[in-house]
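Retro notes
What went well: the complex prediction finally ran end to end.
Inputs used:
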Amino acid sequence: MRRLVLTLSAALCVMAPAAKAAFVTDEAVQPVMQKTVDDVIIPGYDAFKSAADASSAAMNALCIANDKASYEGAKKAFANLAGAWSRIEVLRDGPVLDNNMFERVLFFPDRKGLALKQIQAMLAAKDENDIAGTSMKGKSVAVQGLTGLEFVLFGSGSEELSGGKDNFRCHAGRAIAANVAVLASELSDAWNAPDGVADRWRRPGPGNPVFRNGEEALIALLGTLVRGLETTNEKRLTIFAAGEGGANPKKALYWRSGLTMQSVADNLKGLKAFWDDSGMQGIIKGESSAITTNINFEFKTAILTAEKLDMPVDKILADEKARSRLEFLTMTIADLQARLNNDYGRAMGLAAGFTFSDGD
Amino acid sequence: MRSTLISRRGFMRAAGGLFLAGLVPGAAFALEKTDAVFAAAYLDPDGYFGLATVAEDGTIIDRSPLPRRAHGLAFDPNFNRVVAFARRPGTFAAIFDRTGRAAPVVITSPEGRHFYGHGAFSRDGRLLYASENDFDNARGVIGLYDATNGFARIGEYPTYGVGPHDLSISLDGKLLIVANGGIETHPDFGRTKLNLDRMEPSLALIDAASGALVEKHDLPANLKQLSTRHIDLSAGNDIWFACQYEGARDDLPPLIGRFRQGDALQFIDLPEETARNMANYVGAIAVNRADNLVAATSPRGGTYVVLDATSGQLVQEVALQGASGVAAGPHGFGISTERGMFDARRSPVNWDQHVVRLT
């Protein structure tokens, strides 16, 4: 016991002065969280909801007209929908984690190709009961979201949609689009509800069931950025550029619609919105300008590079210049992630960056 | 009870001249005068990960580089080997022969599995058990590795639960004890917790010889968001477990408990202020069997507590920023912090969340 007491006393003496170390104050974090909710998250889900409503309406129009113009309209609406989702999907926190909401909207990666098998089976069966009313919501998560809708619009056999005849494929697409609109509405409603999750995010504090103090809230915010960059790099780029078995364009998200790189650019823009519009750069301590300047520069570089690569994935992989640009993009994102995790995290007072506080 | 610790002299003898010759002078001196040697994973200021051995006073004795971040550790006193497991959802485990006679062995989890960051040797040192995720089926498994044959994977047992984390072995070596944290994760979603609205935490006792379930304790319905994470055993075969709560941050659930085979789970009631200071998150737990004490750290709360292992009463609460790993020392505990403290000495590293005692 003597040794224990000695050990404890020594630890106390040394550590006590550091116990209230440099972490940014609750007062500084509170407005950041307020802006995160009101200027980033709620507008993000509202934009997703609007895009989902527009896509649902475009699918309705397509199923009435079954012509080329309405088909183009539905594809364009899908591209807008994928873009709006790509910007807000970077938030993997809050209501989107309840009831498999995230996977319902987007089931990806799909290692076993479940979506393709199930959507093809559904289209082959042509059973209207399968897609009637709200039955889509009870279907496998692999078919009821964006990858299911993408296959309907862009997959093999999609020429049927503009062939001038009423067809089951369109009905299935309409049901999926309506389902995504319901999901988007539920997410938007959850964040807009008075006294709901938004309020808890806006005001960290001792009685708050989500964030007990500013530090916890800021860690969650930084976590969104760090994890979002990691996911974009590993699950949206590396997965097709250098995944298991080598490069394979068909492992890319949205390869059928050619929206892969646009989605990556939107992921990065979504993350940049958290970084820019929350005001989190303004509360940094120490050598703030060097840290934020580097992060701002790399965000800009990454987005520009992704935009320059806006072409079908198979073309990127076949072109040496595009391929090295893709490599540069993954390196930039990795470096950006490290800067946020380490430099920003440490400047905020985290021991060794965000991932260290994300223990087990 | 046979001691699981080898003596310092035994370690020195086993380590031999080769190991000592490789140490910097201060480290060799620290090793000579220390009564205990610990190991812990770290991150250095240049962003590199490794495993260090540490003297009782916190002096780093030696370092071994690791490919990525490690988490939990396991020590085999029979053959003087220590294993560092990749942090979830990592796929490597590095085994170091502390005698320096054999090169480190790095194993990778098989396809469809990743490590969960913890494991244990069989009491005779012939097998290594690792907690793993069969992620496509969202079920926990224990990987069995042959520690006499290059750590070849020779089989697996189910953990009878989801998201296993810490894994321990009974003092007689017959039971594997698993904390099924109840949280579903999938490497496609990184470290995201996929089922916080329907968790299934439990503690399972598994026959080490056959893999059969001996006993399973589901957490009660009102504590379904209390993830069981870490385990240590008392001299009297009490299984102490520590938890992390995924529910509302203004709840104050119990975080520490214990049970014996055949008995129900018993939770420890901490004073309200202490419970608040633990921030619903225990990072590591250790029992000092000689002192009959239990210590548990909370890096989130910047606190650690020491309990009487018999009564469960709080003996001491200490504010320690980033309180991280803990292991029983000759007396008391070796405690690390995320900011590089070990005992009263600060090293230019960030210690990971676990410490194991080697001698």
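What we learned: The longest strand of chain B covers residues 113-121.
What to try next: split runs per interface for comparison.
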